Sequence to fold (290 residues):
Amino acid sequence: MEHPNPVVFTVASAIALIVALSVPAFAHHGWGGNASEETEVTGTVETVSLAGPHATMKVRVGEQVWDITLAPPARTQRAGLRTDSIPIGATVTVVGHKNETAGRFEMKSERVTWDAEVFDVYPNRH
Amino acid sequence: MVGVPEFLAWIEASALGVLMRESGVWTYGIVNLGHILGISSLFGSLLILDLHLLGLWRRVPLAALSRATVPVAQVGFALAALSGISMLSANATEYIGNPFLAIKFPAIGLGLVNVWVLSRLPAWRTRDQREPSASERLHLAISGGVSLACWLTAIVAGRMIGYW
Fold:
């Protein structure tokens, strides 16, 4: 080795910076940033999507449309929930953890119930 | 002048976005895998090259090292860019207002400008024929340092997009 020390220092600093930047950021992935207690939302289905990083639903409660985040698409499908499983306009009850930020109608959800059908996308979480 | 929100809405509505959303529950995960392979090929090879430009492994000639690392970095960049645009198109409007997007893409832009500058340096262009002078070594080292800073920033900001 010739004179690696400044370089080693640079790389070590960069890695330390990455670690420092990573610590506060767990709002979307995982369950951080969501209330620890469970919330139940009952409303009518506007959309069901099994695309993108995770499956999503939009559920209307009066004037408010909730953004419901479910499990990854494949896991949601294994729980029996497909885009055509619940008719648009049907009344569903969603159980999950809502976003802690006031005024954000978003919920990371464990279970969707429609009539007698239960779609348990995270059965081990409650 | 089209703004970022308009561009994100356009790419979400594009045929690529429709394909990403309607081609099965594993599509996003597989494209995400392509992104990881692209980034690891790109960053792995440029990490070796940039550390060499910064002065490590002097006994390995730059010409030999670049012959191996540059094509791998190019293929990695192409794979990362294609998979990244595809993933963005799946749910692009969800990222409107995401500050990490505004860090990531300028960092990639600067990284590419740095590649272009490096490719114009005489010491780089004649690396097959001669050794760089002391002042040229400094230019190469600056380019290597800027490169590491740009691509590390892009990777950190990119990883954080989904956590916002």
